[in-house]
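## retry 2 of 3
previous attempt timed out at serialization; input unchanged, resubmitting
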Amino acid sequence: MDSKDKETKTQPGDTPTTACESCDNRECPAAQRKKGESEEDFSERRELESRLCRIRRKLVVLSGKGGVGKSTVAVNIAAALQMAGKRVGLLDVDIHGPSIPTMLGLQGAVLQNGPDGLLPVDADGVKVMSLGFLLPDPDQAVIWRGPLKMGAIKQFLKDVAWGDLDYLVIDSPPGTGDEPLSVCQLIGRLDGAVIVTTPQKVAAIDVRKSITFCRQLGVPVLGVVENMSGFACPKCGEVSAIFSSGGGRRIAKDMKVPFLGAIPIDPAIAASGDDGRPYVSAFAASATAKVMRGIIAPLLALEADAK
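## retry succeeded, writing output
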C-alpha cells in the first residue's frame, strides 16, 4: 500500500478502520500473505502495515556519534513541521537514553489506551511516543539485547494509534546498531534520513558510516546538519568559530549528499530543552530558529514531489 496515495475512509467520531478493510489496492503488502508465513505472523504484519499506510512520510534522524545534539535536532524538526501546518508524530527509539520526554516537558506523562490502540502523548500538536513514558523510575537502566529492542520498536509502530500523519520523525540513538536497523527493517521503506554531526573531524568522520549505512539499506539521505557550528553570542547574535567549522559541509560534499544547514551553539537552545520547549517555537524570531526552519525545506519538498 502506497502511503503517499492512501486516503483513510473515516469520518469524525468513527472508530478508525484498518487500511486493509478500506483499501482497494490488491498489491498492498498487508493483503499479500508471504510464502511460508504463519497465520500469526501474517496477522501481525498486517496490523503493522495498516498503521504505516496512514503515515505519508517516515523520516529517521541519525548520528554517527553521541553528544552531537541529534535529539535536539529531531525535536525541532518535528516542531518546525508542525508549525508548517503538518500532522506530525515523533517516535523516540533511543531505548537506553530516551530524552525526548524531558526535551518536550512530558516527564511523568501517563499513557492511555484508546479504541484503536495506545495513545501517543500530545506535545502542542505533535504526537509523541517514547520508552521513557513506560519507565516507572526515570533513573532505571534499560538492560536489553537486540531482540527485546526490536520487539519494543515494533510495538511502538504497530500498537500505537498514530492515526493519519503527514510525517513521522524517528529519533534514533547514535551509531548504526540495533535500533536504526530495526526501524529500517520494520518500516521497509523510509522516505529519508537526516544525519547530524558536529564540526570536529572526529565526529564528521562518523557521518560517512551513517551515510554508508543508509545507502546499504536503500534509505535516501536527505542531508547533513552541522550542529554546534560556532557560538552565537546571546547579546548580539554574532557567531564566532570557537571550534573548527565546516566539517559537516565538507563531508556532505565528499559523499555527494545535501548540506541542510549549520546550527550554532546558542545557550537558549540548551535552556529551551531543559525547559521542555522546542527552540524553534520558543524563539521563533531568532536567526538560529530561521536556520532550523530552513532544514525542513527538503522534507516539505517530499510532499510537493508527491503531488
